[in-house]
């Protein structure tokens, strides 16, 4: 595993740089030189809430308006605020993208681990779903999924099972591994497969589902499986393909 991780580090170009999926996430650092920058903007090097891209009620009835509003404006914003506060006390992460923060964070750097993961995960999560979803995987992503899982149905079953069986709070993932294969995994809390120093199996996540109760409890209560089924209908496969193609570019 250690060797694999080292090779993955090399493959990912992570020596502080990471695989800049940040442009896809739209969650880059605040730019003090940006037009319109003024004293109201956050200080340079801090992270900001990315645009949601659709209305809070756009995913009704599968994900309700109140859940979306609270999840985005309170939970995600809290991860960002706590991340910025934690980063203010360290120089190890200065100027890094959120991808790179996740790549180098150590297990005992709890505040940055939890809130950096929270920021990366939610920034991607808002993009991985869209009103009405978008068809099914096609092109090079579909081919890679067939190679790795045998069929799309097999993937959906494995992904759903990972999400259903994650005990407590966490995420289930579809990620690209160091050999270009795809795999399903799940992580507790706000950990993600970018966290090479933390997770059992590192990779580049290209799809993930939030199975914290705050993501579904208002509408689904304890019926996590129903929420997962609704999420699968909302997946924007065009965006997942963009993550796949970006992660695959060395
Ligand atoms: Mn969440």
Notes on the structure:
The protein is mainly α and 250 residues long. The chain has ten helices and three strands. The protein has helices at residues 2-12, 22-25, 65-87, 98-104, 110-128, 139-149, 152-165, 217-220, 224-234, 237-248; strands at 170-176, 182-188, 204-210. A three-stranded antiparallel beta sheet has the order 2-1-3. Helix 3 runs antiparallel to helix 5 (110-128), helix 4 (98-104) packs across helix 5 and helix 7 (152-165) crosses helix 9 (224-234). The chain is globular. The model is unreliable at 1-19 and 32-39 (pLDDT under 50). Bound molecules: manganese (III) ion. Manganese (III) ion binds next to helix 3.
Could you give the count of β-strands?
3
End-to-end span in angstroms? 21 Å
The average pLDDT is: 87
- List the helices and strands in order: HHHHHHHEEEHHH
State the helicity in percent bands.
40-55%
Radius of gyration: 17 Å
Instruction: Give every kind of bound small molecule, once each.
Output: manganese (III) ion
Q: Which ranges are low-confidence, i.e. pLDDT below 50, for 5 or more consecutive residues? A: 1-19, 32-39
Count of alpha/pi helices: 10
Shape: globular
Most strands sheet: 3 strands, antiparallel
Strand content: 5-15%
Structural class: mainly alpha
**Biggest β-sheet: strands ordered side by side in the sheet:** 2-1-3
